[in-house]
Amino acid sequence: MTILILAALVLLLLFRVPVAFTLGGLGLILLITKGFDLAMVPLSLYGSMDSFIMLSIPLFLLMSNVLLKGGVGSDLFRAVQSWVGHWPGGLGVATIISCALFSAISGSSVATAATIGTVAINEMTQRGYHRPFVLGLVAAGGTLGILIPPSIPMIVYGVITEESIVSLFLAGIGPGLFLTACFILYCFVYARFNKDCKKATKASWKERWQATLLASPTVLLAAIVVGGIYAGWFTPTESAGIGFSVALIIVYAMGRMNWEKLKEAVHSSMKTTVTIFLIVAGAKLFGKAITLYQIPQEISSAIAMNISQPGIFIFLVCCVLLVMGFFLESMSMLLIMMPVLYPSLSPLMIDPIWFAVVFVVMIECALITPPVGLNLFVIQAVAKVPLTDVIRGVWPFILMLLGTVVLLWFFPDLAIYIPFKL
Fold it and tell me: What Rg do the C-alpha atoms of the chain give, in angstroms?
């Protein structure tokens, strides 16, 4: 039965049936087949959305889209560039630092890649950086948006597993900063061996302070959102609401927002929210059905009986996620896999918070692996280039992401030190 259900799931996805309807429809068929009470269907659908934590998703999306429409990303990039642009590989460094900072206020990989890419791609290509490197750098930098808090996949993971959202956010900080450092180091090495790269003109102190002053409201917003959660001043959902309100004040005070732009931001956020919530609702129904069929319990028992080493389990999970990333987007992977995998963590003594970080790093790979990596298409649309150019540029960054997973295995404190030991 497990094999038949998994085969049906894969078959429907291969036929391009939308993920939400694949999960929800398959779950409904399973319930009908066994004669379960269908009254649980509307209850499951309603229960999947009636969550205070889930309310943070549209609010974080609204915040990131308001900042995107307000052109805040260009201010952020210009400010960072004024300080580090004259270094070897300085524009690449500025791009990655800008991605990391914008990640701390958006929680969205797509918004991060689109916002920073709009400014950085032209700047870097005009100064001799090879186009595939530039495209790969921005696409990979965008993936930091789902690791550095606030992270929308971490919120969904917390809802599914009932783990602490704050602990999940804090666990993403160490690996997020580590990956940022790796990407920056790669920019230095690339510029060292590529003689075509031209350094940006060193900015004067006046230019630096002017650019920094212009970007300071955005940095302050990031400090409020992340710092408030860490200090315990407000919950992730409250921080999302406060962040959206402050973002709105910032863009209106800077004269960069009008009614049309606000409508566009709200409409874009609404479309993404509906997509996420439909997938969550479908996954909730599918998860309820497979639980009633005892499938997660059987898989957990099979793993406990046949896999006694946590390392082998993590290796197999990473291999499955890497393959799934070729044809599924990140949120779908999370919602399909976690109801099945989560019961197996406790018997193998695997920390669920640490596992969340490993899982998110692996779905970062999915964002930049062909053929359906979402960030690949975002960068292609922003730069108006062939998709093959973007794909050629992301492979070094995929290797760095996989290397981070290996490092997390040998040094788990990279993820769990801040939430549990600091």
Answer: 22
